[in-house]
Amino acid sequence: MKIIEAGIKDLESAAKLFNDYRVFYEKTSDIEGAKKFLGERISGGESVIYLALSDTGEAIGFVQLYPLFSSTSMKRLWLLNDLYVDENYRKMGVGGTLIGKAKQLARETNARGLILETSVDNFEAQGLYLKTGWIKDEEHSYFSWDNV
């Protein structure tokens, strides 16, 4: 397995995985929308996307990180917003390897760290996060507001 930072040349592969990820979260399949969305993120330097490639070069997983800042620590912070591994490649260490690459980015950018959220019933992902050294936040409540 090889991990690469996705560029515009990798848009087709990244968009397919991103679309599968959205379908996993019960969103309507929209491959053209996925290409447009990721293309804008990549072109604008608005996120960092790493792709996991199989030994044959097939994209089998991805992680997308967005830059944030922590006012209290006065440092960069990365939001691990998306992590997905093709179902045919799960339980093979792909997710853990992608998380390792995200941690490397945090170290290289001297960030305070990484944050993420996942569904309360996504026990498989929660197990992976705990296994890879994440700490479940029991001290804060998170709220959202939708402009819909």
Could you walk me through the main structural features you see in this protein, from its secondary elements to its overall organization?
The chain is α+β, with helices and mostly antiparallel strands. It has a single domain (2-131), classed as Aminopeptidase, CATH 3.40.630.30. The chain is 34% helix and 24% strand. A 5-stranded mixed β-sheet has the order 1-2-3-4-5, with helices on both faces. α1 crosses α2 (31-43). The radius of gyration is 15 Å and the shape is globular. The mean pLDDT is 95.
Helix content: 25-40%
Poorly predicted parts: none
For the report, how would you describe the main beta sheet?
Answer: 5 strands, mixed
Q: For this entry, what is the oligomeric state of its chains?
A: single chain
- Element order, helices and strands? EHHEEEHEH
How are the SSEs placed, and which strands pair?
Blueprint: E1 2-5, H1 11-24, H2 31-43, E2 48-53, E3 59-70, E4 75-85, H3 94-108, E5 114-115, H4 123-131
Parallel strand pairs: 4-5
Antiparallel strand pairs: 1-2, 2-3, 3-4
Helix pairs in contact: 1-2
